[in-house]
Write a structure and sequence with these properties.
25 strands; Jelly Rolls; single chain; Immunoglobulin-like; signal; 5-stranded antiparallel sheet; 6-stranded antiparallel sheet; Ig-like_fold
């Protein structure tokens, strides 16, 4: 889905207030996204024909993702000191057997990787399905054309990180989460909402929700987009309803402005979060549902007062932090990330630079 048009903004500034600009989006489709982390087979090294369906992986190591093969190896002076004296390079193979029910025939089926380090190549049932050279940004592979429904399928992933490709510890392997995604052909793609708060005061705020809607049907589709606003207590407080027409093979963007009375403002120490729940209704059936977390806040910079959050001068006490978790390696561990944040906050940190690459989507926003 990331191949479709969306409203992602990429930028780099020295420090970001924790959670201030992080908008987490959790996809909850008509068919829910499911974890694809369990029951993989792994082999470290070169091997011929491992991408084929018939290949026998019964003697390979069994494991669950996320996985960092480099942290498992002994330290050695022969390895680059900048990457911790660990073998972050080489070739690693991952394979997994899975089934998709025939009831999903006609939908879009994909595998989403939050991160794979790196030079990833992906095959499904022996057919090449996609690749991603960069290890820090997630990617999604459409596997619809290669599937056998109600039968055994095999996905094979080859990673080939290179030596001297980084000057810090990167880890190696499928070190972030993987999900199986099944979507209607009319759906909101991942990162398909862009939410801003153009006007904010203590009495009222305006929420601007821009929603990308992808139509992969062969015909134009007329549907209804419903966006509900849920307050921090879990109560629905407002909604917007729009009639939409999306041309075949395109992604349209729908803009909705929704008012919120007496908003609970997001603050560094009281990070109140709202939810925007987006539904697509087609022929009186909900075919997609997408949940976006966001905060209502006002930010400004002044030559005399510096950074202002909700009209109040706020000093940014920031640090840089890499994606790895010390001796635990790079394989994502939520409790370890939470502990890192707790330590940072206890020492007075309220801003974070995720040096030098994008962090796992949602990690910072959920802490």
């Amino acid at each position: 889905m990331k191949k479709h048009k969306n409203r992602i903004r990429q930028f780099c500034i020295p420090f970001l207030p924790l959670l201030l600009l992080m908008v987490g989006c959790n996809k909850n489709n008509y068919v829910n996204d499911t974890s694809f982390n369990e029951n993989w087979s792994f082999y470290k090294g070169e091997v011929k024909n491992a991408e084929t369906y018939e290949f026998d992986d019964s003697q390979w190591r069994k494991l669950d993702l996320p996985h960092d093969w480099a942290i498992e190896e002994p330290f050695d002076r022969k390895y680059n000191a900048r990457t911790g004296g660990l073998p972050v390079y080489g070739t690693g193979w991952y394979r997994k057997h899975f089934t998709v029910k025939k009831e999903h025939l006609g939908k879009l089926v994909s595998i989403e990787f939050d991160g794979a380090m790196n030079n990833a190549h992906v095959w499904v049932n022996g057919q090449f399905a996609g690749e991603r050279p960069y290890g820090y940004i997630g990617f999604e592979v459409d596997i619809t054309p290669y599937l056998k429904y109600d039968e055994d399928n095999v996905i094979a992933v080859r990673l080939q990180p290179e030596d001297l490709a980084a000057r810090w510890y990167t880890g190696a392997g499928i070190y972030r989460n993987v999900r199986l995604k099944i979507n209607h052909k009319l759906h909101i793609p991942q990162y398909g909402t862009y939410i801003t708060t153009p006007t904010v005061n203590n009495n009222q705020a305006t929420i601007c929700v821009q929603t990308s809607i992808s139509n992969q049907n062969k015909q134009e589709k007329s549907a209804i987009l419903i966006t509900e606003i849920i307050d921090p207590s879990g109560d629905k407080i407002n909604e917007a309803i729009s009639n939409i027409v999306i041309q075949s093979g395109t992604t349209g963007i729908v803009t909705q402005n929704i008012s919120v009375n007496k908003p609970e403002l997001w603050d560094i120490y009281k990070p109140k979060l709202y939810k925007a729940i987006s539904y697509i209704k087609l022929n009186n059936k909900i075919v997609d549902k997408y949940i976006s977390d966001f905060g209502i806040r006002e930010i400004d910079f002044s030559a005399n007062k510096g950074f202002l959050l909700n009209g109040k001068p706020t000093k940014l006490n920031g640090v840089c932090m890499h994606h790895d978790m010390g001796p635990l390696g790079a394989a994502i561990n939520y409790r370890a990330k939470e502990r890192q944040m707790e330590i940072m906050k206890n020492m007075g940190v309220n801003a974070l630079r995720t040096s030098h690459n994008p962090p796992l989507t949602g990690t910072t926003g959920n802490l």
